[in-house]
């Protein structure tokens, strides 16, 4: 990042593990799985519990927003407050927004398509496009908080949230802005979208034991459980954070990105693309592989992903840092996963605790990693947060103590 040190001064979360950072951290450290049978999509899912958009955003505003934008606004509000910032007084022209999303608002699309077929074109909402377009994720956050700087939505499938954090760091390094609200949001728990994942054979079919369905690195894993949510980080140059007296949770020292160029859904079996992203993140951070203390793995609970990532990590980080996948608790939050897991990596670094990999009962013998099965105290000097997506898109963040 051209020698620019980036501080994480604010955190916000809306996930199946809870609304707010405190609730999330408690649930993730306790290893409490959230998967359940979801009759609305006829599959297992991990939904955000108790999310009342009318109460959190006001009924008029909530009505005009797809669920993916609602999540982002709530998470961004928490992150801004946590950073001790006041949008009424900041220089909005120097505040950027970079958020990741894989799909935009499929809930709105599917609902309005039903209206179109059942009631006719004249009954389709004029808000269809403003509610469902992916770019509106960043646009709505900017309008809510008066952020008039660079405004972007990035889409790298399930790496989107992590990619957004990397792009935000580059904007800070290039002095395009002084603050960036970075992260990701996703709300794809709709009948058509979830059916698409099911038809690919990507989802767990452990219907009789929903809580045990998402089980990264376990020998009996059979697919991921789709989830929803958002994670937002406030990023600023460390020098600027110190100048305003802000307290940093951690620092983002580097990021790396790559492409497998291999297959539309399957990872390259040896994890060569993931390795390139890891090494790029470490080079950007000015660090070597032996300095990594912890990895928040992509760890989706699919046979192919977990095996490829494990092979890559064992080869790239042979000193065996402690690995976890928080997807055992939250399920796979798709385009938001990288942002949410970056927040968890920040919290691990700050609190010196690696959360457990929920439901890991019998490690796959082909996976030669040290994987946390209980909340484990670890002094973390450098953590990696891995995110890999369909299309072979990879993003890795390197995170260090403040």
Automatic annotation (TrEMBL):
SMART domains per UniProt: PKS_KS
Domain Ketosynthase family 3 (KS3): from-to ranges: 3-401
Gene3D superfamilies per record: 3.40.47.10
InterPro entries (UniProt xref): Beta-ketoacyl_synthase, Ketoacyl_synth_AS, Ketoacyl_synth_C, Ketoacyl_synth_N, PKS_Beta-ketoAc_synthase_dom, Thiolase-like
UniProt organism field: Amycolatopsis rubida
PANTHER family per record: BETA KETOACYL-ACYL CARRIER PROTEIN SYNTHASE (PTHR11712:SF347), POLYKETIDE SYNTHASE-RELATED (PTHR11712)
Keyword Transferase: yes
Keyword field: Transferase
Protein name: Beta-ketoacyl-[acyl-carrier-protein] synthase family protein
Family note: Belongs to the thiolase-like superfamily. Beta-ketoacyl-ACP synthases family.
């Amino acid at each position: 990042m051209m020698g620019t040190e980036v501080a994480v001064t604010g955190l916000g979360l809306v996930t199946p593990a809870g609304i707010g950072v405190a609730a999330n951290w408690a649930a993730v450290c306790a290893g409490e799985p959230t998967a359940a049978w979801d009759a609305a999509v006829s599959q297992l899912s991990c939904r955000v519990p108790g999310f009342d958009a009318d109460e959190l955003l006001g009924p008029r505003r909530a009505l005009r927003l797809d669920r993916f934008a609602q999540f982002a606004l709530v998470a961004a509000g928490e992150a801004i407050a946590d950073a001790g910032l006041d949008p009424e007084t900041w220089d909005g022209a120097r505040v950027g927004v970079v958020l990741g999303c894989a799909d935009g608002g499929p809930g709105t699309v599917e609902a309005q398509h039903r209206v179109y077929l059942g009631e006719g074109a004249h009954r389709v909402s004029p808000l269809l496009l403003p509610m469902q377009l992916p770019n509106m994720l960043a646009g709505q956050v900017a309008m809510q908080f008066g952020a008039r700087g660079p405004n972007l939505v990035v889409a790298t499938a399930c790496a989107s949230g992590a990619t957004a954090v990397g792009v935000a760091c580059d904007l800070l390094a290039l002095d395009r802005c002084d603050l960036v609200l970075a992260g990701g949001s996703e709300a794809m728990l709709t009948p058509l979208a979830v059916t698409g994942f099911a038809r690919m054979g990507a989802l767990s079919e452990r219907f009789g034991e929903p809580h045990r369905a998402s089980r990264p690195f376990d020998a009996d894993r059979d697919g991921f459980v789709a989830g929803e949510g958002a994670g937002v980080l406030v990023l600023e140059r460390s020098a600027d954070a110190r100048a305003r007296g802000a307290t940093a949770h951690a620092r983002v020292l580097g990021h790396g990105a790559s492409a497998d160029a291999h297959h539309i859904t399957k990872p390259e079996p040896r994890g060569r693309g993931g390795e390139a992203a890891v090494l790029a993140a470490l080079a950007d951070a000015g660090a070597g592989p032996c300095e990594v203390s912890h990895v928040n793995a992509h760890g989706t609970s699919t046979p192919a992903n977990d095996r490829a990532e494990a092979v890559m990590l064992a080869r790239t980080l042979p000193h065996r840092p402690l690995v976890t996948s928080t997807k055992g608790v939250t399920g796979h939050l798709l385009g938001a996963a990288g942002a949410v897991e970056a927040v968890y990596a920040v919290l691990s670094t700050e609190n010196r605790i690696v959360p457990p990999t929920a439901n890991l009962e019998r490690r796959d013998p082909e996976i030669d990693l040290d994987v946390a099965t209980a909340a484990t105290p670890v002094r973390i000097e450098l953590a990696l947060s891995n995110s890999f997506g369909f299309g072979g898109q990879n993003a890795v963040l390197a995170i260090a103590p403040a």
